[in-house]
Amino acid sequence: MNVTTQKLDIIHWITELNDPATLGLLGNIKERSTCQQDWWNTLSAEEQTSIEQGLADAANGRTTPHSKVKKRYEHWLDY
After folding, report:
1. CA-CA 20 to 30 A from 34: which of 13, 23, 25, 69?
2. Domain boundaries in the chain?
3. How much is the pLDDT for 77?
4. Cβ contact 17:23 at 8 Å
5. Rounded CA gap, 22 and 29, in Å?
6. What predicted TM-score, i.e. pTM, was given to this entire model?
7. Please, are residues 48 and 40 in contact by the beta-carbon 8 Å criterion?
């Protein structure tokens, strides 16, 4: 099935569809696929700076091994 045939098949199916839940789901998919806003632009300047700092720290080897972090916070973890 080529793309054009597939599109026409879906269009026909949608025109016959009467289920509000499915139509709502399709509307959500359409809205998300046409949304051009990058999630990065929804962050505050402070959040962007914090993420950039964390990425720079990681790139420069300023990290803490998981085992040390786990040990430090083990009394809050539910194991």
Report:
1. 13
2. 1-35, 44-79
3. 80
4. yes
5. 11
6. 0.45
7. yes
Q: Which CA distances in Å does 31 have to 24, 34, 50, 61?
A: 10, 5, 30, 40
Give residue 5's identity as a one-letter amino acid code: T
Q: Alpha helix locations (H) across the chain? A: 3-16, 20-34, 45-59, 66-72
Tokens of 38: 């990058």
Dihedral Cα 24, 28, 30, 32, nearest 10 deg: 180
Q: At 64, phi and psi to the nearest 5?
A: -120, 130
> Within a 13 Å sphere around the CA of 59, how many CA atoms are in the beta-carbon half?
6
Exposed (0-12), middle (13-18) or buried (19+): which is 26, by Cβ within 10 Å? Answer: middle
CB atoms within 10 A of CB 43: 13
